[in-house]
Structure formats: structure tokens, C-alpha cells
Amino acid sequence: MGGDELNYVHEAFETNWVAPLGPNVDAFERSIEKELGNAVHVAALSSGTAAIHLGLELLGVGPGDEVLCQSFTFSASANPILYLGAQPVFVDSETDTWNMSPELLREAIEDRIKNHRKPKAIIAVHLYGMPYKIEKIRSIADAFEIPILEDSAEALGSWYKGTSCGTFGDVGILSFNGNKIITTSGGGALVTRNKTLRDKAVFLATQARDEAPHYQHSHVGYNYRMSNVLAGIGRGQMEVLKDRVSARRKNYEFYLNSLSSQNELSFLPEPKDYFSNRWLSCILTSCYDMRETLRMALLEQNIESRPLWKPLHLQPVFKDSKQYLDGTSEVLFQRGLCLPSGSNLSQEDLERVSETIKNALS
Ligand SMILES: *Cc1c(COP(=O)(O)O)cnc(C)c1O
Q1: pTM score, two decimals?
Q2: DSSP letters along 108-155, please?
Q3: For the chain: N or C, fewer Cβ within 10 A?
């Protein structure tokens, strides 16, 4: 925590705004809007997953539809496709950002259209905080008139050409889960430049209650709004977002500097005009065995590390889905390792991690 969170939480208690609405929710939304810029409107929700669910519904996804989704991501990017009775179609990554390959995206769209199944939406992800190929993905989406759901759960504080991640999609989503760069313990947000969409998201998130003195419903609603208590944590966390981003980037710089002489390892540099929050610091090893050797050597020192996300097309739960692949995400999964990346790592911690890696390699 940063420092001011508890004051805002106390305020919620003292004013008895212990509900999924109130002054902290409003102020948290305004502070996210201010941080992101680009004239967006924000709806604070109970999780990033809830935001993806509502976002897809607002983009018109329903039973039987197909939705294109980056395969190299966390399962929460794709699960809401199934909540809506739709089907995911997975698209592989490219090697510059590790995110959705524009070439495979185009191939997938053209092939699905040939099969008379024009996709309803594209879910593109800024994985580990690295922005995807913003302009290429946008121009393909526009050419085929398919909306983008921008999964920015890991990329608050990242930007491309000076514009914040979270503001590039027709709908963007953020996560404030406990593991993210800032947190409300659990929480998320839907982001859009379209005020009507934002208001519709709030309507659906609060049980879709029509205007009437009694409870009247003409839509299926959800209970997805953020608690005013947790939004208080969020207000305090927004004040330290910049510090968190700089701490994460320092972790990455440290690993890069101390390990760059190791020929077996490589890093993911920022392409020109890219700024990553470096949510997690990741390395690529030269093969699966080396990845496992390093992971076990770290574990022996009681240091947790983790393979990169397992591509969703390899997950048993999605095994029957259509896929457009070139092997990139499978290689990343085999060879990649997420290193300790917390905002509170000390210099000593970082040195211990890098020494352990160097020793294992020698
Ligand atoms: C964390 C995460 C989500 C889900 O957010 P929650 O707030 O945990 O529901 C979705 N997509 C990605 C890429 C994530 O990392």
C-alpha cells in the first residue's frame, strides 16, 4: 500500500458509504480518467474479468458468435467469451512485443469470413505491460469493421506514442486484482471513449434496473460494480502508480544490466515509441531444459519464478477451439521465465536473484 488508502477507506466507514457505489467510486473513476487521458470514460467494476464480460456484451457478442483472442495470455482474457455462449478463435503472437500477430490476425479474419463466420470482436492483450502492435491491429480491425476489446489488465501506466494503454480499444479493460501493478485487492474497470457505452456498462453492472419506483427489468443484469470501500484503496493506489511503474522498470533494468552478458539469455526490448510498465520482468532462455534448470535453481534458494503464460490453445479447457498459429507462443512458453518483479524488491533481493541465475548458468 502507498499511504493514503486507509484514509479513504476510513472516509467510507465514517460516511457509511459501505455499498457498491459512493464518493470513492466516483473519485476513483475520475482519477483513472485523468491518468489515462484521451477523453475516456471509466466504469469501476468488481474485476477485470467482469469488465471483459460486460465489454464483449456491449460490443454485441452473443451465443454462437466467434471472437478472436490472443492465445498468449491469461485465461481470464478468454473465459468471458464462453460465459456469453460464444466461441474463442485463438491467434498466435509475434516476437517484437509477444502480443497478437497482425499477420495471423488478418489471416484468421479472412479465413473465418470465407467460412461465413465473421468474428464479432478482437481481444488484444498488452501482455506483461508491453503494448501490442497498436496501429497494425487497429487498421486491420477497421478494414474489416470488427471492434477491439483491449485487455489492458497488465498495462496500466504503459503507453504507445504518448497515449495510454487502455484507451486504444473500442472498449478497454483494467484490472486491480492483488497481483497487478496497483490493486484494490480485487477490482477492475471498463474504459471507453463512448459515454453511452460507459453508462450502459454501469446499468448492466447494477442489475439492469429500469427507471421505475419498483424493481423493473427488461435486460439480464449483473452485480459487477466496485465496492466503495475498495474504491478507497484504489484512490490511494492511483497516487503511487508512477512510483510503482518506476520500481518495476528499475527491476527490469537491473536484470538487464546484470544478466545481459549471459549469451544464453535474452530480454524483450521496447520497440521505438513504446513504453512498458514492465509489470513482470521476463527472460527468454535458449531451451526448455535451461528454463527448468534456472527455475529449479531459484526454487532451491526459496526464490519463486514462473514460466510465461501457457498459450490458451494448449489449455485443456479450450482444446476444441479454432486456432491460427505459427508456433511463436509455444516457444515463448517453453523458454520463458518470469523473474521476481514486486515493486518492493530490495537491491539485495535483486542481486540474490541474478547471482543465483549466473551460478546456475556457469
Ligand atoms: C489479471 C488479468 C485479467 C483479469 O483481471 P481480474 O481483475 O483478475 O479479473 C484479464 N486479463 C489479463 C491479461 C490479466 O492479467
Answers
A1: 0.98
A2: HHHHHHHTT---SEEEEE-GGG----HHHHHHHHHHTT--EEEE-TT-
A3: C
